[in-house]
């Protein structure tokens, strides 16, 4: 089914069509968001970069947005139904698409040297000015149609395939079809799919390296396992090599072993009591130990329960770093089968506000052998890359909003 681009045009032979907006509410509470599921399709029908459409919704609704063309994710904070968005889209079309003279939607956006915006009509040749007082005009000037479209081309192959999959859903009841897909949300699934399609180990692209790179790299599973064993032997369960408070290791081992010995694992209150009893409630290393001991192979279903405890103890940058280090160690050393789940784990840390995006990006930018050996450290970061990329794009997206207060609401 498709609808007229100019919805108030009653001409039965009107040939400019677009798909109606499909939206999906995700998350709950403060984290509630609306995914504009077919944002890219709608934007294509209007010959506008997808980000313009999402941004426009955000500006009109006073809501923050995030745009990721590579993963085909277009999010608006808050819950907004498709009808509302469709009405807003009419305004977008009036202001930024239709020729003012002949109402034809086949127009190009033109930016003049003096930073004026026009719709250039292919049908009648007239130029209609675009309202520069609308905040989207600022976005367009900063992201001209050509460069805003480039991003889409690079991710084109994948999103085409994804679009095809969505096309199938449209045949059924759209709302239900979207809900019926189990516990993982779309983003987590995509990240996982990307992560599992990554080639194994080997020299990493975006990851900076420390100088002493003298590993003779044997990446066979056996070799990795042998190195893991060796490393475990060297440094013991919870100790880390280059730490000067080494005589405090006992306390951390006590905490770690105490948690590991119990089945089921102790609840948050008991863990917190134990930590206080040991007097290490302010120590960043405590978080490393927790990352190594609170979870098992089902970590993805266990993080949520630990949010209150972890947030209570997370007192600064070094704490976040230690928690990520502990996670790296837990997965890299003890559960290498979970390496492909790293993006999901990080995504949960991030969306439950356990770890800030700064800390995750910092962690991801540099392999380190502080917590695990270098090869594993690289492997973990490589697996994390899809999430890191997503986060970077979301972040630069936010930065580009500076100065547009309607978009800055938290
Ligand atoms: Zn025209």
Describe it:
- This protein has 17 helices and 9 strands.
- It has 410 residues and is of the alpha+beta class.
- The protein folds into 2 domains: 175 residues, 2-Layer Sandwich (Defensin A-like); 209 residues, Serine Threonine Protein Phosphatase 5, Tetratricopeptide repeat (Alpha Horseshoe).
- The structure holds zinc ion.
- The site of zinc ion has 8 residues, from loops.
- This is Domain found in IF2B/IF5-domain-containing protein.
- It comes from Lipomyces kononenkoae.
Main sheet: strand order? 3-4-6-5
Instruction: Give a list of the ligands.
Output: zinc ion
CATH A-level architecture of the largest domain = Alpha Horseshoe
Q: What structural category arises from helix and sheet content?
A: alpha+beta
What's the number of structural domains? 2
Task: Indicate the multimeric state.
Answer: single chain
Question: Which whole number gives the mean pLDDT?
Answer: 78
How many helices does DSSP assign? 17
Organism: Lipomyces kononenkoae
Protein name: Domain found in IF2B/IF5-domain-containing protein
């Amino acid at each position: 089914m498709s609808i007229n681009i100019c919805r108030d045009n009653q001409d039965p032979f009107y040939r400019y069509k677009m798909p109606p907006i499909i939206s999906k509410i995700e998350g709950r509470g403060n984290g509630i968001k609306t995914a504009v599921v077919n944002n890219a399709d709608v934007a294509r029908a209007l010959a506008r970069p997808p980000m313009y459409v999402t941004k426009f919704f955000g500006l009109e609704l006073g809501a923050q947005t995030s745009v990721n063309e590579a993963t085909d994710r277009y999010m608006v904070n808050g819950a907004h139904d498709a009808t509302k968005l469709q009405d807003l889209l009419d305004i977008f079309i009036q202001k930024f698409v239709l020729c003012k003279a002949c109402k034809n939607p086949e127009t190009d956006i033109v930016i003049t040297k003096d930073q004026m915006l026009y719709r250039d009509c292919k049908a009648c040749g007239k130029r209609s000015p675009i309202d520069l007082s609308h905040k989207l005009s600022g976005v367009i000037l900063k992201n001209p149609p050509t460069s805003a479209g480039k991003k889409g081309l690079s991710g084109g192959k994948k999103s085409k395939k994804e679009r095809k999959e969505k096309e199938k859903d449209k045949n059924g009841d759209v709302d239900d079809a979207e809900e019926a897909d189990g516990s993982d949300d779309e983003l987590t699934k995509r990240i996982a799919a990307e992560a599992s399609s990554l080639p194994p180990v080997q020299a990493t692209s975006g990851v900076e390296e420390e100088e002493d790179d003298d590993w003779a790299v044997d990446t066979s599973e056996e070799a990795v396992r042998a190195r893991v064993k060796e490393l475990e032997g060297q440094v013991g369960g919870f100790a880390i090599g280059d730490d000067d408070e080494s005589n405090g290791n006992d306390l951390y081992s006590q905490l770690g072993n105490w948690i590991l010995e119990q089945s089921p694992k102790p609840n948050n209150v008991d863990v917190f009591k134990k930590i206080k009893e040991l007097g290490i409630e302010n120590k960043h290393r405590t978080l490393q130990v927790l990352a190594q001991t609170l979870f098992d192979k089902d970590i993805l279903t266990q993080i949520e329960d630990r949010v209150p405890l972890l947030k209570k103890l997370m007192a600064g940058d070094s704490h976040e770093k230690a928690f990520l280090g502990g996670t790296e160690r837990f997965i890299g050393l003890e559960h290498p089968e979970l390496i492909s789940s790293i993006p999901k784990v990080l995504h949960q840390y991030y969306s439950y506000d356990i770890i800030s995006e700064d800390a995750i990006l910092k962690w991801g930018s540099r392999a380190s052998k502080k917590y695990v050996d270098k090869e594993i450290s690289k492997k973990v970061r490589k697996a994390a890359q899809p999430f890191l990329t997503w986060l970077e794009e979301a972040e630069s997206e936010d930065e580009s909003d500076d100065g547009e207060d309607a978009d800055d609401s938290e």
